[in-house]
Amino acid sequence: MAEQPPPPDDISDDELRAAYEEQLKRVRVEDVLVQTVVSLLNLGGRKAGLVPGTESEKDLEQVGQAIEATRAILPLVEGALGPDAKQLREVLSQLQMTYAKESPAAADDAAPTEDAEASQGPGPAQSSGRLWVPGQ
Q1: 0.70 cut: is pTM over it?
Q2: Which candidate, 52, 45, 55, 61, places its Cα nearest to that of 105?
Q3: Domain-located, residue 4
Q4: Mean pLDDT within 83-88
Q5: Is residue 119 part of a domain?
Q6: Which of 34, 48, 77, 84 is surrounded by the fewest CB atoms within 10 Å?
Q7: Half-sphere exposure (CA, 13 Å, Cβ side) for 88?
Q8: Is 90 among the domain residues?
Q9: Is residue 114 predicted with pLDDT exceeding 60?
Q10: Cβ(1)–Cβ(52) under 8 Å?
């Protein structure tokens, strides 16, 4: 019959430390990075108000940080994720779209309007006459 581990109250500090060390031997950095990406996306979704009941938790600065951190880490673990990488990329895209729609900074960085482009005149390639531009 297999020996049962002692109840938690009977574990000494040395035994607890040894058990922790044994677990650390099996953990890979890649595993921690994957878990971090998942945590960032979940937290970003909450801070974007995408999770029902979290609308009052909206914090676009936090959403932006979650997006940037995920974008930095995801390429490091995509190979290990296999087909799951696509699902995480889709979640990241949804978070980015929400951020872009709701961020005041996104509105400031929007592409110039047609009137603004017209007032700037033709660019250097158009002025040279070497570039064909449809409709012009």
Answers
A1: no
A2: 61
A3: no
A4: 92
A5: no
A6: 84
A7: 25
A8: yes
A9: no
A10: no
Q: Which of 63-67, 84-88, 118-122 has the highest mean pLDDT?
A: 63-67
Q: Domain total for the chain? A: 1
Report the candidate in 68, 67, 85 with the shortest Cα–Cα distance to residue 30: 85
Cα(129)–Cα(119) distance, integer angstroms: 19
CA distances from 21 to 26, 33, 56, 125 (A): 9, 19, 41, 65
Residue 19: inside a domain: yes
By residue count, the chain amounts to: 136
| pLDDT value at 27 more than 70 | yes
Say which DSSP state 57 is in. Answer: G
CA distance 73 to 30: 10
Domain range for 104 is 14-110
DSSP-based three-state secondary structure for 88: helix
